[in-house]
Amino acid sequence: MLRMMSTANFRALARGMSQKPNFDVPFDLTGIPKTSAFIGRKSDLALIKEQLMPGEMSDRRKICVIYGLGGMGKTQLAIEYARLHKAKYTSFFWLDGKTEESLIQSLLIIGQRLPKGQIQDVDIQDVKGSEKSKMRAQEVLQWFALKGNNQWLLVFDNIDRTSYEEYPNRNSSSYDITHYFPPGDAGSIIVTTRLQRLVSLGDYVHLRKLNDLDSLLILEKHARRALKRTTLLDGSEITQWDPG
């Protein structure tokens, strides 16, 4: 009887080991600064898709740097891309990169969302001190390098205080963002930044001011006033506020 049970247990274990790991994490925007209605930027979204979309080379990492002045909507553009294409990715995570401390904290929170048993379970309340936090953050990053886990999307947001390619390093509070890229060569990464020098990390999208029509559409939404569109004799269209 014991021999039969042992054989059954062995077979169950073998089946479990032969099963392909499930790296799916439910899409969740909780705690992420997002807008309820994104407007415009269609060409920018198309360019990000071209640079990042998983394809035949899914085992090769893809990086898109979205750079531009503050207030251009870099964060919202990254989130909108994730929303539109979430079905193509097994997981999506947003990281607050304003400081090294906020980035580490984001990674610790990610650790709580990962499938059970794929990394060591640690209660975030038990991680005390900067060194232990850094060690735990690196443990979380190892999850992205697990074999077969190659269709994740990470957004490193507001990377404006990084020492990457800064010569000399004049800011003592800056950090090297590449130290927090997962090991390996898989997955997709978006970096939002004001720093043009970060385009050397991969492909890039230079975010400029919205065109006039998109700007008016945003005003229309927030002002709750309709726009009046008039077609001229030459076929062109003008847009203005409806006085009614």
Can you walk through the features of this model?
With 244 residues, the chain is an alpha/beta fold. The chain is built from six helices and seven strands, in the order ααβαβααβββαββ. The protein folds into two domains: 24-29 and 37-209, Rossmann fold, CATH 3.40.50.300; 211-244, no CATH class. The strands form two sheets. The chain has a five-stranded parallel β-sheet with strand order 2-3-4-1-5. It has a two-stranded antiparallel sheet with strand order 6-7. Strand 6 and strand 7 form a beta hairpin. The protein starts with a helix and ends with a strand. The relative contact order is 0.18. Mean pLDDT is 82; it is low at 1-5.
H and E order: HHEHEHHEEEHEE
In CATH terms, what is the architecture of the largest domain? 3-Layer(aba) Sandwich
Name the CATH class of the largest domain: Alpha Beta
The computed structural class is: alpha/beta
Shape: globular
Could you list the spans in which at least 5 consecutive residues all have pLDDT below 50?
1-5
- What's the number of structural domains? 2
The major β-sheet equals: 5 strands, parallel
The CATH homologous superfamily of the largest domain: P-loop containing nucleotide triphosphate hydrolases
Radius of gyration, Cα only, in angstroms? 23 Å
With helices defined by DSSP (H or I, 4 residues minimum), what is the helix count?
6
How are strands sequenced across the largest beta sheet?
A: 2-3-4-1-5
Got a strand count?
7
Helix content range of the residues, please? 25-40%
